[in-house]
Amino acid sequence: GVGKTEAARQLAKVLGIHFLRFDMSEYMEKHTVARLIGAPPGYIGFDQGGLLTDAIRKHPYSVLLLDEIEKAHPDLFSILLQVMDYATLTDNNGKKADFRNVILLMTSNAGAREMTSPVIGFGAEGDASGAERAAKGIKAVEKLFSPEFRNRLDGVVGFHGLNQDIMEKVVDKFMQEVEGQLSEKRIRLELSEAARQWLAEKGYDPAFGARPLARLIQTEIKDVLADEILFGRLREGGHVLIDRVPEGEPEKEGMLATSNLTFHFVTTSPER
Fold first, then answer.
1. Which range scores top for mean pLDDT: 38-42, 49-53, 126-130, 196-200?
2. Can you give the three-state secondary structure of the chain, one letter per residue?
3. Which CATH number fits domain 4-110+145-150: 1.10.287.990, 3.40.50.300, 3.40.640.10, 3.90.650.10?
4. What is the pLDDT of residues 191-201, one digit of tens each?
């Protein structure tokens, strides 16, 4: 909810290499770990290879993200030690996958509770409390992962909660994606500052971070625009200004008002 997975995805995009993501909640049981390198001889799926080794052989230049690593079975960490030591992994068929050109990232929620808990003691909330929270987060990571595993990591990066300014930038990113999807239909979007601030405020939850924002944009903006594209004023393209609902202002021609936002339509198709 604070952008860990998205940061990995953007890193791959900037570097121009493939992005591979494995959800570690799918590898909580001992037998599921074998799927990454392939089933042992005599077991079902022996001839299919491993999901991880096959993916790396197919995309030797990639950003590999192991999401929520703390949920994985301990056997997975033994596999990762080999990868981090020798940059290679052998599957059940004896074929080696080369990890020398792979950037290995792992996300974890370890320490999240400690970093967001109030600091006990005197003094204002400032740099000292921030450093103290970071130290508490690192200590939680040290408790969860073994020393031999931690020593093979190049670094640990802590992610703080999102404030209003950052959330507004996240809104801009989401809206750029929406506008990119609509560009083929010759539709241009413009978001007012009031609507931007409202989306940033309502799209953030302290427990879930920015995850509710995608759902909010879907229900408040995308669904409305979809109806207009299919049946209304945007069938031939146009320009849409999205604003907050002014109190007491009646709906005017060329305007659609929902309970939270107003949509001002200019149906003249934009120039190509």
1. 196-200
2. CCCHHHHHHHHHHHHCCEEEEEEHHHHCCHHHHHHHHCCCCCCCCHHHCCHHHHHHHHCCCEEEEEECHHHCCHHHHHHHHHHHHHCEEECCCCCEEECCCEEEEECCCCCHHHHHCCCCCCCCCCHHHHHHHHHHHHHHHHHHCCHHHHCCCCCCCCCCCCCHHHHHHHHHHHHHHHHHHHHHHCEEEEECHHHHHHHHHHCCECCCECHHHHHHHHHHHHHHHHHHHHHCCCCCCEEEEEEECCCCCCCCCCEEECCCEEEEEECCCCCC
3. 3.40.50.300
4. 999 999 999 99
